Predict the 3D structure of the following.
Amino acid sequence: MIKNLVFILTLALGIKVCNAQVKHKMFIGLGNSGQYQLNIIPITYDSTVTDLKILQCVDSLPSGLFHSKFYNVLFTGDSTHLAIQITEGTYLFHTRYTITEFYKNGNKKRDTYYTKHLKKYWTFNYYADASPMYTGKYKGEIKKGKWNYYNRDGNLVKVEKYSHDGTLIYTKEYNPAKHTLTTTLNPKHPKGQPYVIQ
């Protein structure tokens, strides 16, 4: 039992040290200047660039055992606005990618999660004013499970349920729109009020 406890403590300490080293290496400059190193991928974003192309580029870059890396893609013809941010994270030997796409005004357009095999498995989409648009899960490129659709006020307007093979099982529309609890997509509407049941 003592051996197991020592092993667990050693493992936890090792993970803490690795995370501290990664955070330390992310800073550049002297002291706490607060400047982060930007990793710009040599791809400019337009409608022809796919997530798969971006992820293949990121996947070809060198990586470490425990790490979390951020890569950025800029808009074509506009190097002042961030188009896409890619987060590559390894969690106990399991790599996951998160692609966050932005509108030109700086608000999030979508968050899409990919497995280490570059398969899409979850997405959150937003309107230009940062209110949630829809959320759902994927199995590869096929929709599965429950998909929720929202209006610009953050109220639920439609729910779809898909089987594992991607066939639509049922659709339920809410008219008037259904008020929902605080969403994980966007806890506060841009108007400043939280999404609550009324």
Remarks:
- The two ends are 53 Å apart (CA to CA).
- The chain has two domains: 2-136, 137-198.
- The longest strand covers residues 78-91.
- Residues 2-26 form the longest helix (25 residues).
